[in-house]
Amino acid sequence: MISGLRGIVQRFGASRVYLLAGSVEYEVNVPLNVFEFLQQKKDAEHFLHIYHLFTSEEQRLYGFLHPSQRELFGAILSLKGFGSVLALSVLSHLDLSGLLDLCERGDAAALSRIPRVGKKTAESLVFEVNQKKERFRKLLDSEEQKTKKPAADEETELAEQALVQLGYKEAQVQKALLLARSESPGASASELIRLALRHL
């Protein structure tokens, strides 16, 4: 099973790209926002998180820029009556937070404005997501946790950048900052620099 591909897009099709990874070209279906992003950076190397879909008739690859998009795609596929075409269309216009917000508010009218999602499908989406709200909420919590950076880490990073710019070696700086952080866990970047300089 393919879970990720790194390569350069060779050409674009309808809602899909052809990615050359090594010596093999893969056809990868992507949501609109991913398609547009890849078009803007045609010659760059990209890593796509892959959802490898198996059916009785064929295999298809679906590519996303972030793991959370792939997980959301799989979650939508698990809903009754929702296939890959509808899931891609939803993902082309909404992120996880937006989808959950509309479904919790029961806003089927807004969902019905998404291409391929009519009134009945929108109502079904609201019902199905709310039936599995706990799963979608866990996905959202996980996504927010991954993107949230502790303030202490940010201060340490700022201090490290400043000390490296002063000419200290990165390995020495990291060791000094570990000692500084242990001395003063809640220290600001400027305080960390002052403490770290004692160990450099």
From TrEMBL:
Compartments reported by the entry: Cytoplasm
A Pfam match: RuvA_N
Helix-hairpin-helix DNA-binding motif class domain span: 74-93, 109-128
Chief location: cytoplasm
UniProt record, GO biological process: DNA recombination; DNA repair
Gene Ontology terms: cellular component: cytoplasm; Holliday junction helicase complex; Holliday junction resolvase complex
Coiled-coil residues: none
Molecular-function annotations in GO: ATP binding; four-way junction DNA binding; four-way junction helicase activity
InterPro entries: DNA_helicase_Holl-junc_RuvA_I (IPR013849), Hlx-hairpin-Hlx_DNA-bd_motif (IPR003583), NA-bd_OB-fold (IPR012340), RuvA (IPR000085), RuvA_2-like (IPR010994), RuvA_C (IPR011114), RuvA_C_sf (IPR036267)
Assembly: Homotetramer. Forms an RuvA(8)-RuvB(12)-Holliday junction (HJ) complex. HJ DNA is sandwiched between 2 RuvA tetramers; dsDNA enters through RuvA and exits via RuvB. An RuvB hexamer assembles on each DNA strand where it exits the tetramer. Each RuvB hexamer is contacted by two RuvA subunits (via domain III) on 2 adjacent RuvB subunits; this complex drives branch migration. In the full resolvosome a probable DNA-RuvA(4)-RuvB(12)-RuvC(2) complex forms which resolves the HJ.
Comment text on domains: Has three domains with a flexible linker between the domains II and III and assumes an 'L' shape. Domain III is highly mobile and contacts RuvB.
NCBIfam families linked to this entry: ruvA
Similarity remark: Belongs to the RuvA family.
Official protein name in the record: Holliday junction branch migration complex subunit RuvA
Organism of origin: Leptonema illini
Gene assigned in the entry: ruvA
